[in-house]
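Task: encode each sequence below as C-alpha cells.

Item 1
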Amino acid sequence: MEFCPTCGNLLRYEGGGSSRFFCSTCPYVAYIERRVEIKKKQLLVKKSIEPVVTKDDIPTAAETEAPCPRCGHDKAYFKSMQIRSADEPESRFYRCLKCEFTWREE
C-alpha cells in the first residue's frame, strides 16, 4: 500500500501502458518504473535454539514417579520453575533416570 505524500490518502493503482499510483483527492501522481532494483542483499542466518533448562539445572536429589514419554521408565528427577509471568502456574521440568530425556509439564 502506498499513501499520498501530499494529503495522506491511500493511493489508487492504475495499470496499462504506463502504470501509476494516483491520489483521488489531490493531483498527486507517481509513475511506476518497470525495472526493479535490489538495493541491499542480506544473508539471513538461522539462530540456534538454546534450551530453557539444561542437565545441570535439574538437580539429581528430588525424584518422583513420572512416566518418561520416550522410554516409559516410571521415575524421574524434577524441578519446578517460574518461567512465565507471576499470574501463570509454574512449570515442572523432568529428567528420566534411565534415558536422561528432559520434558516439561505446565
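Item 2
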Amino acid sequence: MVTKHTSALTLQVLGNAKAAVAAVVSVLIFRNPVTVMGMAGFAVTIMGVVLYSEARKRSKVTAH
C-alpha cells in the first residue's frame, strides 16, 4: 500500500536513510569506532537522500 502511494525508489531511499541513522545512533549510544570510510558512507547516503528529496520536490512543482 505504501509503494502504491509513493514509489519503490522512494522506499529504497528511505531504507538507506534509516540504515544510516541507525548506524549513527549506534555509534552515539555504544561508542562504536567509526572509520573514515564509514563516515564517508554516511555522508554520501545523507547527501543522496537530500538530493533525491529536492529532485522529487522540483518534479512535483513542474508537474502541477
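Check on item 2: The helical segments are 2-5, 8-30, 36-63. The first helix runs from residue 2 to 5.
End of task.
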